[in-house]
Specification:
283 residues, alpha/beta, 5-stranded parallel beta sheet, 10 helices, 11 strands, 34% helix
Length: 283
């Protein structure tokens, strides 16, 4: 197709969820596993530097605590830092008090390292839903300016299928846009299948490994043609196909890890990306 390789004028949003390969297990077991997050994150940083791409890195507080020099390097390369909580625990497994304690701990660690205010949050397992919408008020109370945890799709792990598909101002009713509000939600991207009205997740992670790249590209181009950014996420461990195999992690954690790097490089070539804060500043 003529012009298919030409980048859209729409700038998409690239996010990296900085967690190590074993962090879907309980934090009490983490000391028993090999740390590989520094090498895999550096691989991403190198690819972004080669393409002059900026991103938002949502960092697990435990990772920042163990490897502060990695966080300093991310900032030094011009990327935005956000929090991914401290213990990588789903909000569904936390009380409001425990969630706030975990959040504050992560913010203190990150802000001490970067000497700057953290503005963005992403929940483990995209676990802000209608049942955990109380978390939005806690995020605002602690000085955050935006969240990116709502996934407008339904899976066995997460999802708010009735949520807006594109960036909106969120409140305690997370399924509607609140134009009077000043707290942004940047939901993970989906592709709405015509006629069926079914949302298919295309935002990255497992889905870029599952689907052919041509489908991801088509869906992103459709979003961009309508004037909307695609909000994309990826984990450093997804660039590490030789990571250890353990029974505690589900099959989809390891599915087609060897395909990630090639597809991600094509993505950086075919689309423009920036950080969340950069997008918000121009919204």
């Amino acid at each position: 197709m003529i012009g298919d390789s030409i980048k859209s004028d729409v700038t998409n949003i690239l996010t990296i969820d900085v967690e190590d390969w074993y962090m879907d297990t309980d934090i009490s077991t983490w000391d028993s596993y090999e740390d590989r997050v520094v090498q895999s994150t550096q691989k991403i940083l190198n690819m972004l530097e080669e393409t002059n791409t900026k991103a938002t890195f949502f960092v697990v507080g435990y990772v920042a605590e163990q490897f502060p020099e990695l966080i300093e390097d991310i900032k030094a390369k011009g990327h935005e830092l956000g929090t991914h909580g401290y213990s990588h625990t789903s909000i569904r497994k936390q009380t409001p008090l425990k969630f706030e304690e975990d959040l504050i701990k992560s913010l203190r660690i990150l802000e001490h390292i970067v000497k700057d205010k953290i503005k963005g949050h992403r929940a483990c397992e995209f676990s802000i839903s209608e049942e955990t919408s109380w978390a939005i008020e806690i995020l605002q109370k602690n000085g955050l300016k935006y969240d990116s945890s709502v996934f407008p799709v339904k899976t066995h792990l997460y999802g708010v299928p009735d949520a807006p598909l594109y960036p909106y101002r969120i409140s305690s009713d997370i399924t509607i846009d609140n134009p009077e509000g000043d707290f942004w939600e940047l939901p993970l991207s989906v592709y709405k299948i015509p006629i069926m009205h079914k949302n298919i997740p295309i935002a990255g992670g497992f889905y870029i490994r599952l689907f052919p790249y041509c489908f991801i590209k088509h869906a992103m181009k459709k979003n961009n043609k309508m004037g909307h950014p695609t909000i994309f996420y990826i984990h450093p461990w997804e660039f590490d196909p030789t990571q250890p195999r353990i029974n505690e992690l589900s099959w989809y954690h390891y599915y087609r890890l060897s395909s990630t790097e090639k597809k991600f490089k094509r993505l950086l070539k075919d689309f423009k990306f920036s950080s969340m804060q950069e997008w918000i500043s121009h919204a």
